[in-house]
Amino acid sequence: MNVYKVGIVTKFNNQNAIDAGKKIAEFFKSRNVKVFTVNDLNLVGVPTISPDELSNLDLDLVFSVGGDGTTLRTFRMLPNSTPVFSVNIGGTKGILAEVAGDSNIKAQLEAILNGNCFIDSRIRLQSRVENQVFGPALNDILIMRTNLTRTPVFKICLLNETLSFRMDGIIIATPTGSTGHSLSLGGPIMHEQLNCLMILPIAPVLRIPSIIIQPQEFSISCSHGTKIVIDGQEIYDANADSSIVISRYQHDGKFARLHKRGIKQIAQLGF
What we know:
6-stranded antiparallel sheet, elongated, Tumour Suppressor Smad4, single chain, 19 strands, Rossmann fold
């Protein structure tokens, strides 16, 4: 990997993450690599830019410094497949991260510059309601009822069939997201390299198993208004009976990795 321009995204209001971001920025500055940061690092020669500006730059690599939430936020800033190197500082488990802490960060950065890394591609999702497009989502898209006093009917139009169920909501998860919210609701863990999606009903009136499908476009509607939640961080409204179209995002998310591990996320969970 040739690295000439990098971006840095740090966790909000976390001094440890900011300090680690400074170390990363100073390392690359010393190697004549151009550095941009979304959160102010207060370093001369390291401009602070907005997320929109970051998305428009032709970067070789972006560093996410924080927890999994910061990693998910970073990927949504990147409409194309710019690789992300995730450092877990200030997070909890850091399931998506490649490394934890910054004690060895210089050696890890040297390894990247020396080309001792590889790219780990992940499916991403997007949702669309009429002319509004939401995403991309690395983990999942949640569609949840807003009326808490009545259980609505959700319709899933998939493979030329329409399935109707009364339930509270639906999670559409990627293999990456199978270790997130869907796991807490009893969904299966999918190996992160699988080429599939999971549709998981939330509190259905009749017991319905999760459905594993190949990535494809399908639609969901609800008899009541709903909230569309992208990676647990961005929330949008959909009216009753609106067609919410789910599809694979055209650009996969790409992690820059140093260590080959066949079951990375499962191992991070302690299995």
